[in-house]
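Run log // design_07
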């Protein structure tokens, strides 16, 4: 079970993905290209607050999402 802070991070990540129109698959591919260790199923479980991810992996997910959002044309 996730602690309160990690659950908030997972919800915030999922909310930002939804607002930006980025799918879990898209995020995972970019995160993986940055040397992320979690597999796609683990990412999905984390987004649904069903799996703990180490702090470094959570930071990498946030970084990957920011890069995807910043690289979008607009």
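design_07 sequence
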């Amino acid at each position: 079970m996730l602690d309160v802070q990690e659950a908030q991070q997972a919800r915030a990540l999922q909310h930002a993905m939804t607002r930006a129109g980025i799918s879990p698959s898209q995020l995972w591919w970019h995160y993986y290209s940055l040397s992320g260790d979690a597999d796609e199923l683990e990412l999905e479980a984390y987004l649904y607050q069903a799996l703990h991810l180490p702090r470094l992996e959570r930071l990498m997910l946030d970084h990957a999402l920011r890069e995807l959002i910043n690289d979008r044309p607009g």
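Residues 4-70 form one domain.
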